[in-house]
Design goal:
The structure holds two protein chains of two kinds.
Chain A (H helix, E strand, L loop, with lengths): L1 E2 L4 H10 L4 E9 L4 E9 L4 E9 L5 E3 L8 H12 L2 E3 L35
Parallel strand pairs in A: 1-4, 5-6
Antiparallel strand pairs in A: 2-3, 3-4
Chain B lengths: L2 E5 L11 E7 L2 E8 L7 H4 L9 H5 L6 H16 L5 H29 L5 H21 L8 E2 L2 E2 L7 H24 L2 H7 L7 H7 L4 H4 L7 H4 L20 H25 L21 E8 L2 E9 L4 E7 L1 H7 L1 H5 L6 H9 L3 H5 L1
Antiparallel strand pairs in B: 1-2, 2-3, 4-5, 6-7, 7-8
Helix pairs in contact in B: 3-4, 4-5, 4-11, 4-14, 5-6, 6-11, 11-14
The chains are: A alpha/beta, B alpha+beta.
């Protein structure tokens, strides 16, 4: 199900009231012209999955947090930032998920340079 | 006043390289955060640069305790992308091998978890000995003891050798007897029960909102098992039950896995006896034409640690994107929440009951 970025939180809330209370995964795909963020949620009693797909501009890459609806989104959203450089607005992140990762590059974007010099960071 | 203590990353109870930072007040955990990433190898990026059938070895190294399960999940994703049907006999053989892999994985978990709660090394050695029986069977079937790479598009690299069924039955009979002994060994031990019962309680709602999966989810009273609910291969033709316990504590998670061990033994026996004759061989790697029919594929599999969902956007020659929902990652994310308010020593009981493999969490 395609959805606009502005309607994402509302869309997640609607799904949750319909019984889709289990978050399976948040992931993203870089199609170069746009980034697609995919939320997969599940209705455990009916055994059905539903997806929310948000297209965003790579130059203005951010999504609102869905932590209010799904607590399981915590680590997935942090992964979104570290792997795709997608900012998650509306929540605090004190440190990066992966130890020693500097968070400056976005490795799963298609324009990632493989052999660029890399500095580790000491993020407590 | 709280004190911050650091545990790991190299610590015998962290099951690999996991660093835990705990804020404790006296002996009570106020806040706990797992730090992961020591085993991050960028597998999701790597597979984008490889041809489809060059990737299974990477997949196996994600979860080095149950390599075949990951291998199979990946190959099944490629099969769906290419629109290839799996041969009838291959489906039965795969089911039997996957369940054998689950037995091996659960036996290793049992030994290490008993270590974590103070039953030092007796059970660990027993479980390793028994696990080796299963590994020997898997070696017969695939040619390798630990990293098999025996799945091919549409089937397997080779069929089961002659006499496999008899040897498998013999090993399973022995293991079934041993599982009973292990249960007695642990459950008649008041020290073990004290460490497990009522520790790390996660109720049903909490388990759903934290998104945990596999035996951890079923230990909290949610009956969701991919093998039962979205059956793949021949699971719908075999007789087994999804194991559920409602207590949600460490003991419930332990018990779910013990019951699953028995179910898996039953499943392998069943699959071996009902297995039809025929051809189980898959395509040879060099004969595979680059031809992805479906652009987007989602495949769910019940791995020993929980549900793995592979999401692939397929290009003709190689994956454009492969996203792996690894069960350990999300189970570990819940550790901080479950541990709040417990004693410092109980962190390891809870961690042991989550059955983490760090290669799987970091990817």
């Amino acid at each position: 199900m395609k959805i606009e970025r502005s309607g994402l939180v509302q869309g997640a809330r609607d799904l949750k009231t319909r019984g889709y209370s289990y978050l399976v995964k948040i992931t993203a795909v870089d199609y170069e012209k746009y980034l697609e963020v995919i939320y997969t949620v599940r209705n455990l009693s009916e055994r059905k999955d539903e997806t929310l797909e948000v297209e965003i501009d790579p130059a203005d890459a951010w999504v609102p947090t869905v932590m209010g609806e799904f607590r399981a989104a915590d680590w997935y959203e942090r992964e979104l930032f570290e792997m795709f450089g997608i900012q998650v607005k509306g929540r605090n992140v004190e440190r990066l998920l992966l130890e020693k990762w500097n968070g400056k590059a976005a490795p799963l974007r298609k324009n990632f340079t493989w052999n660029a010099p890399y500095e580790t960071s000491d993020n407590q | 006043m709280t004190t911050r203590i650091n545990i790991g990353p190299v610590h015998p109870s962290t099951h690999g390289v996991l660093r835990l930072v705990a804020d404790i007040d006296g002996d009570t955990v106020v806040n706990l955060e797992p730090h992961i990433g020591f085993l991050h190898r960028g597998v999701e990026k790597l597979v984008e640069t490889r041809m489809y059938m060059q990737s299974p070895p990477y997949m196996e190294k994600l979860d080095y305790v149950a390599p075949m399960s990951y291998d199979e999940a990946y190959v099944a994703t490629v099969e769906q992308a290419m629109g290839v049907e799996v041969k009838e006999r291959a489906m039965w053989v795969r089911t039997a091998l996957l369940e054998l892999q689950r037995i091996a994985s659960h036996l290793l978990w049992l030994g290490t978890m008993a270590n974590d709660v103070g039953q030092f090394f007796t059970l660990f050695m027993w479980c390793f000995k028994d696990r080796d029986l299963v590994l020997r069977l898997l070696e017969e079937a695939s040619g390798a003891r630990m990293f098999y790479v025996n799945m091919r598009i549409g089937g397997l690299i080779r069929d089961l050798p002659p006499g496999f069924e008899d040897r498998a039955r013999e090993a399973l009979d022995y293991i079934e007897k041993r599982v009973k002994e292990y249960e007695d060994f642990l459950e008649k031990n008041p020290l073990f029960m004290e460490r497990m019962k009522g520790v790390g309680v996660m109720d049903r709602d909490m388990a759903i909102s934290l998104g945990v999966t596999g035996p951890v989810l079923r230990g909290s009273g949610v009956s969701y098992d991919v093998r039962k609910d979205i059956p793949y291969y021949v699971y719908d033709k075999l007789n087994f039950e999804a194991q559920v316990r409602s207590e949600g504590d460490c003991f419930a998670r332990y018990k779910v896995r013990m019951l699953e061990l028995r179910e898996s033994i039953k499943l392998v026996r069943n699959a071996l006896s009902k297995m039809p004759a025929g051809d189980a061989l898959g395509m040879q790697v060099r004969l595979i034409l680059p031809s992805a029919k479906n652009r987007e594929v989602r495949v769910s599999r019940e791995l020993p640690r929980g549900e793995c969902m592979m999401y692939m956007v397929a290009d003709p020659q190689r994956p454009y994107r492969l996203s792996i929902r690894s069960p350990t990652f999300i189970n570990l994310a819940a550790l901080g929440e479950i541990s709040k308010g417990c004693k410092t020593a109980d962190i390891f009981a809870i961690l042991g009951s989550l059955d983490v493999v760090m290669g799987d969490a970091d990817r």
